[in-house]
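Weekly puzzle thread! Below is a chain. First person to post its structure in token form gets bragging rights.
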Amino acid sequence: MFIPAPDVEDQPHVVTKVWRTYVIESDVILVCVIPDTGKVRVTTPVTASDPGRQKFETASGRMYQCVGPMAPDTHTFRMALFFNGLVGDVSSFTGEPDSVQ
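Winning reply:
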């Protein structure tokens, strides 16, 4: 079951410690764990970033502050991409993390 993210107006900024970026076609997608809920979120494409500060803005307008190093590529993250229709086969998916410029 999918639970949509809150409206950007209600949650304009998210700080997460468990996160990873994936390049899918020409888009960079952030997959992260939302604090307090433990839910995995797949964002809309990243439209702007500050790699030094690990801040990402997505197409929805939400800002993500990613704390610490990028998480390992996990089956949970790959399944989240699959269930959101971004990849067709999690076993052969080779999306590489990207340092978004």
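Puzzle host: Confirmed. Bonus trivia for everyone else. DSSP finds one helix and seven strands in the chain.
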